[in-house]
Amino acid sequence: MELRQLEYFVAVAEEAGFTRAAARLHVAQPGVSAQIRQLERELGEPLFDRSGRTVRLTAVGEAVLPYARAALAAAGGMRQAVDELTGLLSGHVVMGSVSAPSVLGLPGMLADFHERYPSVEISLVFNDPVTLLDGVLGGRLDLGLLDLGLLGLGAGLPPDVEVQVVVDQPLVAAVRRDNEAPSGTSIAVAGLEGRPLISLPPGTGLRATLEDACARAGFAPHVAFEAGEPLVLGRLAARGLGMAILPESAVAGVESELRVLALTGPPMRARMGLVWRASGPRSPAGRAFVEHARHHLPDLGG
User: Fold this and answer.
1) What span, in angstroms and rounded, lies between the C-alpha atoms of 164 and 49?
2) Which DSSP state fits 248?
3) Does the structural domain 3-88 have CATH classification 3.40.50.10490?
4) Which Gene Ontology cellular component terms are annotated (predicted)?
5) How far apart are CA 26 and CA 15, in angstroms?
6) H helix or E strand, kind and range, residue 122
């Protein structure tokens, strides 16, 4: 008994005729008839009643049909499993990010995936949140790491995108220890007015959050220096270039040179999230990569 015989048998049963089945299978009609006769000889019973103008299943044929369909489905599942394994062995995944925050340990996550799937190529690209989100929606990126504080993204992600919040921490103000900033451990947003600030550039969630908070307080922030990496903001503040507005974790490495102040009225937060298409990446390697990243990185809720 061969899968081809079962395929021909199911086609004849569904088309109620040998000629239509042959046309559906793109083979010659005598070949279909020959394979069905061979299957009937192996089973020892006729599968079709050929006495009328329409070919009909016999009682034995009716009983055999579900098993033939199940066998063909199982064979299809085997082929799919092989295709997916082949994809994982030779695929290519692309992750986009606005930055590579050290608090997440992205290099370790990527290294672990490479160790598990050594033949899958990995690309990590950096861009602004809007471009990255468009890349995820368009299938050019398997996964994105976005700054959710960007106005319009925090509460308005498209319905066909899923998100896992991986960073949720307060924004703080940091100045060199000898800076004349107000004494104490905190500064209100209103106290930022007129001060030279150090911030991420426009188009980032941190900058949008800062500008929105200042606008609510009735002024526009005076950003004297910009840098594209949060860790650099703290280093610039440590050189006395101004007051850095940055995520709490970004003062690492220079905290001994800085005075860190909590921001109040209102407090501001830095939120980053993994985003991917709800339907999942198109490739097996991409789907495996998304699951790996979701398991490896924190899940702080939506």
Assistant:
1) 59
2) G
3) no
4) protein-DNA complex
5) 14
6) strand 121-126
Residues 58 and 47: their CA atoms lie apart, in Å, by 5
How is residue 80 written in tokens? 């799919």
The secondary structure of 139-193 as a DSSP string is TS-SEEEEETTSTTTSS---TTEEEEEEEEEEEEEEEETTS-PPSSSEEEGGGGT
Distant-in-sequence, close-in-space partners of 101: CB < 8 Å, separation ≥ 6: 167, 230, 247, 249, 250, 272
Asked whether 270 and 169 are in contact (CB, 8 A), the reply is: yes
Dist CA 127 CA 138 (whole Å): 15
β-strand partners of 258: 176
Whole-number Å distance between alpha carbons of 276 and 194:
40
Q: At residue 31, what are phi and psi to the nearest 5 degrees?
A: -65, -40
Q: What residues form DSSP beta bridges with 274? A: 145, 164
Structure tokens that stand for 135 in this block: 């890349």
CA 26 to chain centre: 40
pLDDT on residue 130:
81
Domain parsing of the chain, residue ranges: 3-88, 95-272
CATH code, residues 95-272: 3.40.190.290
pLDDT in tens, the chain (302 residues): 888 899 999 999 998 899 999 998 888 999 999 999 999 999 999 999 988 888 999 999 999 999 999 999 888 878 777 766 666 667 889 999 887 666 678 888 999 999 988 888 999 998 888 888 889 988 899 999 988 876 344 456 788 889 999 988 899 999 998 877 777 889 999 999 999 999 998 878 888 889 999 999 999 999 999 998 888 999 999 999 999 999 888 887 788 889 999 999 878 888 888 999 998 887 888 888 999 999 999 888 75
